[in-house]
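Lecture 7 notes: from sequence to structure.
We start with the chain below.
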Amino acid sequence: MTDTAILVISALLVFAYLLDVMGGRFKVPSVVLLIGSGILARLLLDRIGIKLQFVETYVPLIGTLGLILIVLEGALDLEIRRDRAGLIARASTAALAGFWLCLLAFAWLLMRLLDFAPATAALIAIPFAVISSAVAIPSTRGLAQETREFVTYESALSDILGVLVFYAWLAAQGSMETFLGDLFSGAIISLAIAVLAALAVFYLINRLEGHVRFLPVLAVLALLYAAGKQLHLSPLILVLVCGLLLNNPQLLEWNARLREMHGLDYDQTLKEFKGVVAELTFATKSFFFLMLGYWTDLSYMADQRAWLIAIVMVAVIYLTRIAILSVLRLPDRIRLLWLAPRGLITVLLFLIAFEGMDRHSFLIGTVMLVVLSTSAITALSHRGITDEPSRKTSARNETATKNTNGNGGSDAAAPSGNGTEGTERPAKAHAAPARRDHH
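Predicted structure tokens for the same chain:
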């Protein structure tokens, strides 16, 4: 039995990796391929009389781990820099407006069509209003640098906002006063604790030595999340702030004691940590979507009501999005229009909200249809786009950097060809003073 389990897990990981490679080659989101593979596996196993009973038990657990990792990975992608203030403001506006407009429209739709109470309709609507950063960010390959960064900020903020609002509304049980209290006062308390926890994690990642360095950090983050849940705080704020501080150590430069925590090899350590988080996130998402596909009953997706609600929701997503992008006057808004996929967080939050609602089980089909259709639209809109814009942007940036250096300017102010390079230049600039302090 043990050998069989090892064989199955290993084979699934290899299979998921091959699907990811194939999805990148043909510009198809891996989430579509993974869910489709899970559905196909269900059909084949049912035909030969095999039923995997454990799937329903492990889907929520793996989804929660995926949630922590996705928020952490999203935070590790966000750079807080003065030259990105305008971009961050526009992305934040798009994320906030898109989330709240979709939430209100979806809640009204569920109240009208299914006669849901307002509190229940809002709870069910929240997951559908969240953009999936796990699907959106990889889909920006080949787009201009500013467009890629906009999608990174917008989708990561949408993920985090959706999760915070969902759990606050779930705990409030329909009370607006309790909801606002939990969302704001609870968030303030959580933020204060998160800052202290983030400093501890930053110190830990700079001081740990040996072969085992990142597992203790991830264990501390999981511990903080679980403790925050038990204390009725906003645990994902803890994860978010830790990720932001780790990726933006320049925020600690104002204080000499905090600056001393910044190790000389921190940039390399952070790069390795991001790699570990990315691979764990990949493995967790792969298992989640494969099991989700297996767990999905196709009869739910065949229900006409599921299709009707899914079509209306998808239409609302893109209508509200084009309105927001037009108001913001973004230059690449036609391509940005289609980058609003739903994914793991949508499914996970929906499963939590849907507990005990067997009377409307066809909504499981609705969430699957929305996730698959928006992911497919993202993939189709990306066809024909190559990496040429990225290469041109990088070439222009390199030329600008050379010109600036030739004129005696600082290369730290030059725009970078990609997000990674943009973070490394300021970090190196800060590393020099730190090196002199130590010696």
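Points to note: The domain at 16-383 is CATH 1.20.1530.20 (Na+/H+ antiporter like fold). Residues 387-439 have pLDDT under 50 and may be disordered.
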